[in-house]
Amino acid sequence: SQRVAVVVTADHGEELGARLVEGHGRYLYESSIHVPLLLRVPGCPPARVERPVSLTQIAPTLAALLGHAPWAPTLATPIEVVVETMDRDVSHRAVIGERFKLVVDVRHGGRALFDLDADPRETRDVQAEHPQAAAALEAAYQRFLDQGGRAVPVSSSGAGSGQRARR
Q: How does pLDDT run across 39-49, given as a tens digit for each residue?
């Protein structure tokens, strides 16, 4: 029907033994957090969004595309993506920009920076080669912590912009 909006997505991907890790929904590799998102909205031409987005953007996006005001406060401000493992005892968090992803080992304080364009499988830490990107994503992570884990606006210098934060 021309009056029905259709959304197809998933909650998270699967490692399927690719990294010799066990568990379900516990890792922040792209193969786990990158999920499909397809929208068909009446009156909207087909388009492809290349930058990362969050599933929390579905409802406000649909409301806007259908000409409605959001019905509740949303996290609609363009900001970096902050995600964490699903365990109650958080072991890792990640801040994801358009090109780079900073993974934080919460328990041991380690950091790893991945260039998602050059290394989509996240096999090589590139902090030394891209210190500005690492610093920008680290600053976004610190703002996230300073706000008690709530979404906060960040600048796009070195990290990419137009994403969202979520817990």
A: 888 888 888 88
Which pLDDT tens digit goes with each residue over 109-121?
A: 899 999 999 999 8
Q: Enumerate the domain spans of the chain.
A: 6-65
Query: Cα(20)–Cα(111) distance, rounded to whole angstroms?
Result: 21
**Tokens (6 digits) for 149:** 């884990």
**Continuous segment of H or E residues that includes residue 135:** helix 131-146
pTM as predicted: 0.62
DSSP state of 57: G
E-only strand ranges, 32-129: 37-40, 81-84, 92-96, 100-105, 111-115
Distance CA 78, CA 95 (A): 14
Two tokens at 35?
């999920």
The three-state secondary structure class of 81 is strand
CA atoms within 13 Å, Cβ hemisphere of 90? 15
- Strand positions, DSSP E, 14-55: 37-40
**pLDDT tens readout for residues 33-69:** 778 888 888 888 888 887 777 777 788 888 888 888 7
With b for 16 or more beta-carbon neighbours within 10 A and e for fewer, the 136-146 pattern comes to: bbbbbbebbee
Rg of the chain, C-alpha, whole Å:
17
C-alpha torsion angle, residues 78, 41, 35, 25 (rounded to 10): 80
